Amino acid sequence: MFGKLGRALLKAREDGNDAFKAIESVMSWDAFTKNETEAEQLAQPEAFILHEIGDHYATLRRYVPTFLEVLQLRAAPAAMDVMAAIDAIRAANNDGARRLLADVPTALIKSRWQPLVVTETGVDRRYYELCALAELKNALRSGDIWVQGSRQFKDFEEYLLPTEKFEALRQQNSLPLPITTDCDRYLDERWRNAWKRSTASPRQTICRTQCSPNPD
């Protein structure tokens, strides 16, 4: 819709016509006002959107404590700040505390969350938990945090062959790979394939005869 409106205004400018009539040719003023209001709402800064998320905190509190208590989370070094925050929230839940301790981990708080989480009166628990849950979601997606026993969010190492099995297969030269794992055999095969694919021009024929170790 706004594409049509833009083209109409550009055409009006080129032709020297009235811009307001150009707008009316595309949509009514009521429709224009409604679309402009919706566009402003969509263009709100991220901080405004995060502030609105706070209104749903009460709904999250219905299941988040159980959610964090049941899941066995483990973290890679890159996500230890997130895990520290989750542990602080767990401790507050277990103690029945309404406020978080003053020394809760804050390294996970990104700049977009900072104005909402860190206030003049201390750390706002509502936005601290929302921030921690958002970062937990990101860490689960990246694999920096995993859930023991989960199929979707399991430790990356679990996708790999156990070290003992890998070593046994490597020693037997039976790794399930589409190429040979023996370096000498691999290079020999590459050489022979390159030799077969080379074009038999006179110059290359001379090179074959004089430079080849033993193409067989």
Overall description:
- With 216 residues, this protein is mostly helical.
- The protein has three domains: 2-43, no CATH class; 53-158, no CATH class; 163-211, no CATH class.
- Helices cover 59% and strands 5% of the residues.
- It is built from twelve helices and four strands; from the N terminus they run H-H-H-H-H-H-E-H-H-E-E-H-E-H-H-H.
- The strands form two sheets. The chain has a two-stranded antiparallel ribbon with strand order 1-4.
- Strand 2 and strand 3 (122-123) form a beta hairpin.
- Helix 1 runs antiparallel to helix 2 (19-26) and helix 7 packs across helix 9.
- The N and C termini lie far apart (71 Å).
- The mean pLDDT is 80.
Rounded Rg: 32 Å
Q: For the largest beta sheet, what order do the strands appear in spatially?
A: 1-4
Task: Quickly count the domains.
Answer: 3
Question: What portion of the residues fall into strands of 2 or more residues?
Answer: under 5%
Which stretches are poorly predicted, pLDDT < 50 over at least 5 residues? none
Structural class: mainly alpha
Which range best describes the helical content: under 10%, 10-25%, 25-40%, 40-55%, 55-70% or over 70%? 55-70%
Figure out the total of helices: 12
What's the overall geometry? flat
Distance between the termini: 71 Å
List the helices and strands and how they pair.
Elements lengths: L1 H14 L3 H8 L2 H14 L3 H8 L3 H4 L3 H7 L2 E3 L4 H16 L18 H4 E2 L2 E2 L1 H18 L2 E3 L15 H9 L11 H15 L4 H10 L5
Antiparallel strand pairs: 1-4, 2-3
